[in-house]
Specification:
This protein is mostly beta strands. It has one domain (2-46, 54-217): Sortase (Sortase, Chain: A). The protein is 9% helix and 29% strand. The chain has helices at 2-17, 114-117; strands at residues 55-57, 91-99, 104-110, 122-123, 134-139, 160-165, 168-180, 194-202, 209-217. The protein has an eight-stranded mixed β-barrel.
Length: 219
């Protein structure tokens, strides 16, 4: 629990230095998220801009056969949150997200740092990819930058969220939502069925809580 308290302190310091908080995540090997991890990293970043890294788009595989959705559980070891929210990592676009209810269509990226999340919703490394068995977790800003998740609190059960990865569309339906504390790492836990989780700071402009929307794969 010492590392959890240590991460909470780091988060608080980061929030005090930011005008509206910061949402951060980081890829860091195979270490799993758990009770000894830093607190849940979804804080709004400041409006200070950083040098944009070149975007790498993952092209669809060249194959005549349709892509295969993973049949085995995804890794159950989400990577840990970094102590440096702006740790350098490649900017890699993996697809797009669409949320018709709130009029959102936005690129999605792979990564856990603010360098990545400032560009758009980002996939937490070590969680399932869209369409796979497991929980695909995405964090996004609600106020700063393009604020893609600004209105996720308007989503209701049954609303759709569509991820397109490698040219394949995966449609999820909203199954529920909740407001949690920054230490609620359980929201990144993996599941035995294809699910997804999107989250951001709550209320908008504050990093006191996280607004979490739970999804289940429909098609």
């Amino acid at each position: 629990m010492a590392s959890t308290r240590r991460l909470a302190v780091v988060l608080c310091i980061g929030l005090l230095m930011s005008s509206s908080g910061a949402l951060w995540l980081h890829r860091s090997g195979s270490a799993s998220a758990g009770p000894d991890d830093p607190s849940l990293l979804a804080t709004e970043s400041s409006t200070t801009t950083t040098a944009a890294a070149p975007v790498t788009t993952i092209a669809p595989p060249v194959t005549a056969a349709p892509p295969v959705i993973a049949a085995a559980p995804a890794p159950d070891r989400p990577v840990r949150v970094p102590s440096n929210p702006y740790v350098n990592e490649p900017l890699v676009q993996i697809g797009t997200i669409e949320i018709p209810k709130i009029g959102l269509t936005h690129p999605i990226f792979e990564g856990i740092s603010l360098r990545t999340i400032d560009h758009g919703p980002s996939h937490w490394p070590g969680t399932a990819q869209p369409g796979e068995v497991g929980n695909a977790v995405f964090a996004g800003h609600r106020v700063t930058h393009t604020h893609p998740f600004r209105n996720i609190d308007q989503l209701a059960v049954g609303d759709q969220v569509v991820f397109t990865v490698n040219g394949v569309r995966f449609t999820y339906g909203v199954t529920g939502s909740e407001v949690v504390s920054p230490k609620e790492l359980r929201i990144v836990n993996q599941t035995p069925t294809p699910t997804a989780t999107i989250f951001g700071c709550h209320p908008p402009g504050s990093a006191k809580f996280r607004y979490v929307v739970h999804l289940s794969l429909q098609s």
